[in-house]
Amino acid sequence: MLTIVRKSMDKDEALKAYNDNYEYIQDWIAYIEFTITFHLKHIVKIDQINEHKLDRFKGLLIGRDEMIRLLEGMNLESETSKKEQEKINFYDSCEMIENYLEERAVVTTKAGVFLPFAYMSHMLELSAFEKYVVMLSFLRHLDKKYEKIFGYLQDDVTRKSPTADLAIKLYLPGEAGLRVTVLIQRMEEKLFRYFFLENQESSHSLERELLLDQDLFYFILDIKGLRDSSNKRIKLFFPGVQVEPLLIQQQWQDQLVRVLQDSQGPLACFIQGPPGSGKKLHVKSAGNQLKRTVIFIETRNILNLDGTLNNRQLNQALREALLHDAILCLTDFEELLDLLANPDSTGLSTMDRLMTELLEELQGRVETLLILSTKPWSYSNRKSNFQWAVLEINLPNRIERKILWENIAYNLPLAEEIELYEVANKFNLTAGQIADACQEASRLTYWQGEEVISRQKLYQACYKQVSHKLNEKASLVFARYTMDDLILPEAQKKTLNQVCNHVKYRHVVLDEWGFDKKLPYGKGLSMLFCGPPGTGKTMAAQVIAHELGLEMYKIDLSQIVSKYIGETEKNLQEMFEEAKKSNAILFFDECDALFGKRTEVKDARDRYANLETSYLLQKIEEFEGVSILATNFINNIDDAFMRRIHYVLHFPFPDEKSREMIWRYVFPEKTPLSKQIDYAFLAKQFEFSGGRIKNIAVNSAFLAAAEGKEVSMSQLIRATKDELTKQGKVVVSSDFGEYGYLLRS
């Protein structure tokens, strides 16, 4: 077998392609061992010492005999003949070997054989010295014997890895001074940044051990599986890998590609969109279109909470970006936005300062940085050479949501009652959230031993995808009432049905018939319920929520309105922002606290109250969901406000006929009722609202349960007396007509 020196002198040999990566690495090993051999011939020979005196230090010291055994196969004494050795200078030999390795690598690459180290050297623009240092450190991971060799060469058995000092001595034996300083500086600039682990105690660069990053060791050996698992924080996406098709928002994809293609110089692009809006999918699709590798890494692995850069993770990401000429993409940026929002001594936020430092580190190394976030952010300190672009992915509109539901839920066993266009109308979800909702609905159905996904389970799964804080400003109302439970004049019931149809067929009117383009605002549904207390306003709101299958949150405006200027608007702003996320109905109770008619402005507070009213009107018009407002006094509502409401429902005080119907329907079916209950008498004798009738029914049921009897006129008369007394009225038995005697029993 030809030695590495002789092979490098054979021009025909240099024109041959390597059969595989293993053969290429073997030549590199031979080159490293050649330099070690030369070094051993020029150091103080340990065999000059009486080694028998060192027997007691066996295991702590390595003798020359053991070195010769370890280096067996290197031809320590005769790598070349003495005659050849006299002719060939060491440096010339190294140069020939390096040229030989380079030429064969080029020929091999052209032949279609992948040599990872040659590829790495080209992409990272490694010098001959830098290549040598990397492969020297590579040996330590390859075979345990090299640990002893390095210990011997450094006269320290505990030194199992080569140091920077040893690397220079092996590559440039006998050199010192300025040339060594220059080499150390080169190592600092690239090798120590990208190749070697940093956690070392030595502060002097010459003493630093060359601990090769394990990820690179696997890369050089071309062991893909181990390499992929060695650093799970960095995810590589290679062009050509199939991704899910873009079902919607192709125009945004085209915009991203144009931004990436047309940028002059380094580009930093901030991409903001709600959770599940497909930010990563769009980036991958753009990578495929531009034939660019993309490196994904979570922002928290690059930016530390203490306001510093994580240099090790950053350098690993940069190395991968350089290796693959890749786009670097930071994900989950929103996780750190609030934590790093505080300003520092310069007045800039910690995030602004960190972004500037990051861009400075990327300068000249990465041409494209993408930042993905669910929250908006404005970079205030644009002092780097990077162009700064901002792209926003909007929530899908109703048509797009319908397309998503039809594709994602295509194979789901949905109940016949489910209309996907209705689901798309009611839930403002992204593609990712729709996919998660489908999975969740399938799980809920399976766990309950059912085969068909019901509307209730699908809606329940949809609500689970929404993260909001509306419960901090409002209370969730469980909608249990149906249209049959509501005792109202027929005209009001027709209006309520019309209200429900307004939501159910919104996609037809707005999208299919084109009204969406004609309405710049006011695309939601707003209602005003007015009438005396207890006439069914809250109940009617629950009926709408039940009919539409939507959650409803009750907001007490008296708790939202603040005496402090600006606080009311702030509370309303926060509430509507959360409402957009919730897909829920907003039910404003006691809205008289804000919507009183103010024709006469007497002081600053009156002027400001008008601003508060206008602000709420603006928010209701911007809100694309369902909002219901309730008031006890219709005459207090401003005319301008009334014009901006879609539906106004008047809830009259129930007449005698309506009261009798309420009395008959107020008790659940399972309640034991006496057949002697005089519903007609109760309706005629007492002019109660539906709310007060409900109170009496509940109290009479508890009286009957305590007595172990069925509900009869006895309990109802006593409960009625309690209700009247609660209102401060003085009652006598004659107020109860023929049933007054029951108060004495």
TrEMBL record:
CDD domains: RecA-like_protease. Keywords: ATP-binding, Nucleotide-binding. InterPro entries: 26S_Proteasome_ATPase (IPR050221), AAA+_ATPase (IPR003593), ATPase_AAA_core (IPR003959), P-loop_NTPase (IPR027417), WHD (IPR054472). SUPFAM superfamilies: P-loop containing nucleoside triphosphate hydrolases. It comes from the Bacteria. Residues 265-409, 523-655 form the AAA+ ATPase domain. The keyword Nucleotide-binding applies. GO terms for molecular function: ATP binding; ATP hydrolysis activity. The keyword ATP-binding applies. Belongs to the AAA ATPase family. This is ATP-binding protein.
